[in-house]
Amino acid sequence: MANLADMIMILLILTNFALLGSSLLGMCINIAAFQGIIIGVLPFVTGQDPVSIETAVMAAGAMALKGVVFPWLMFRAIRETNVKREVEPFVGYSTSLMLGVVGLVASMWLAGRLCLPLAGKTITNTSLIMPVSFFTMLAGLFLIVARKKAITQVLGYLVMENGIYIFGASIVMERPWLVELGVLLDVFVAVFTMGIVIFYINREFDSIDASRLAHLRDWRRAKNASAPGI
Amino acid sequence: MLIIALILIPSLAGISAFFIRNDPARRMLLAATAVIHLFLSFQAVSQIPLSPANCCWLALDPLGGLFLMITSLLFAVVSIYSVGYLGREGIGEKKDFVSSYFFVNAPEAVFTGCLLLFLATMTMVTTSQHMGLLWVAVEATTLTSAPLIYFHRHHRSLEAAWKYLLICSVGIAIALLGTFFLAVAASNQDIPLTVNGLMTHASNLEPTWLKAAFIFFIVGYGTKMGLAPLNTWLPDAHSESPSLVSALMSGALLNCAFLGILRMFQVASSAGLAPFGQGILLILGLASMALAAIFILGQTDYKRMLAYSSVEHMGILSFGVGLGGAGAFGAMLHAVNHSLTKGMLFMVAGNALTAFKTKSTLEVKGMLRLIPVSGALWIAGILAITGSPPFGPFISEFTILKAALDQGEWLAAVLYLSFLAVIFVAMATIGIRMAFGTPENGVAMAKKEPVLSIAPCIALGALVLFLGLYVPPSLDVIIHEAARSLGFL
Q1: Backbone conformation region of residue B104, classed left if phi is above 0, alpha if psi is from -120 to 50, else beta
Q2: Most B CBs within 10 Å: which of A160, A179, A188, A217, as the mutation test of the B interface?
Q3: Is pLDDT of B323 > 50?
Q4: Average pLDDT of each block of 10 consecutive residues along chain A (230 residues)?
Q5: Which of A123, A221, B290, B349 lies 20 to 30 Å from B407, alpha-carbon distance?
Q6: Is A99 inside any structural domain?
Q7: How far apart are CA B218 and CA B308, in angstroms?
Q8: Which residues of B touch A215 (CB under 8 A)?
Q9: Domain count of chain A?
Q10: What is the rounded distance in angstroms from the CA atom of residue B286 to the CA atom of residue A58?
Q11: Which domain holds residue A98?
């Protein structure tokens, strides 16, 4: 199975680059959904022991959530808010890709510094897990800060969460299903709540451009904050 | 059993609050649940076993018990205040006083329901013994409190709610990674991820991963706690949410996030990493105080001023634990004092906001004339929060200072004192200018102050004064035990 695990890791790296370089919002959501699904496969290919039923159910739940429910929620948000289907970056696509390469190298370096305690029953059969999970988190964080729309920030949050999930699913052995269920539930409610807030942002500002959310600050505050939509 | 009831009662009440149509009945439910919760938590805290059970994921130890008491007490007082507040808010469109257009409130049922669920999740944070469960609970507090910030549906509160939701979710996601790192550190010998299990097997934990986990915990939960420089969401959320929500966030929620850091600190210190952790906490504490001092100077929005003061006090807590020894005792006592004082100040600020219809420190004058009781409480509260005798915060801040001097940390002590002095001058100037003088002509003469909006403030004020004169032995024992469980004393 080692080859399969490695292949998935390489696929994950490619999805991250696709997210950084893609200009279409719908495309980005689809890529993130695809990423969610292949991450759900991870527990089946990285472990050496046969997978327990709880783990399998949780992995299936995570796949359904990340691959189906979240994309559906986000496409709905796009439809209802009538936004432009472009990502609108602060940082251009080619620069994003360059920074992505830098991020990948940095993740490789960092993962090389941290070595897993390999005593006894560890757990993975591919050396790429740590760099890939760090790289996915970095890509998510980058999407949050370098894209204008509120919905791409949610997307970035999800990608970051995916990165953490890669780490957890393939390296950490003791993951009580109750905790995992709680984590999934929290992420679900978080995305759901963010979706609701996006509706309100759209109604209030006539746009889901998060860079307009800049009225609250300490200095240089205008005497009267300008009305929304201007 | 009692602990499960403590979580279940507010959850069930919260869920049913969504469906109750009758406003007065729902408000009664809120107040009744809060009082029952207060009663049960004191019951639970009085039954804390001296040697914590190793078996359970949900259990109360002195550290969690202390924070549970603070949360429950503050929530009970705030819920009484909220009965009057919600009665005054009413329904329909209201004029925004910053920019002149109209907004409506969120449905009251949603607000009350989220308030009660918020209490349930905070209770879960204080009683979680499992690091994963703790994470789930802390993230749940974010999700249940975000709708509370967006109660007044205008664009500023929306912006605040969005920033809060996104920044805290990302921050807490980092804490999840920290939790996984901790699991890796423990993966050699099937160590359970409960606080107690980790502490007893601390010597078997992998030190590199433990250090990494500690740093991720600090960054993650520190974002939520408002430690500089991760505090960017805090002044916005505190200034735009209804005052009673600000009181709860400042007095209870920030403490819960701090508890997340303390849990990790317990583990790190029993693994012999205490000096490493203390160094980080000390520096972050001083940085928070410095940043708060800069932003309080010349602050023109009094709710933002109180918010930055919360950043300062979170810094003091972190500084105290960073010093260790008597400093940790002072920090635990200070958590109590700060929560009660800041809760009162935010509610008084809410009264001022109702009377003056502005959050600008320059436009509020003559609180003592217009709203005499709130005005007097405002002065007392400002003096208390800046550490003047005879109020509670003076005792705890002094304990921390004494610990710093006893340990010969001269530089830290000097910095600590000078930040406190700057903040004292800045806040006292603003506070006194707001209290004295005559109200501007445009301000309508207020009717008599409603009992429900001043009685809770008086109660908290009296408690803060009482704690400044006398620390009851039962509280003293819990605080000592809490400080001991951090590995000090």
Answers
A1: beta
A2: A179
A3: yes
A4: 79 93 89 91 72 81 89 86 77 89 91 68 65 92 88 91 86 71 83 83 74 71 39
A5: B290
A6: yes
A7: 19
A8: 155-156, 159
A9: 1
A10: 43
A11: 2-212
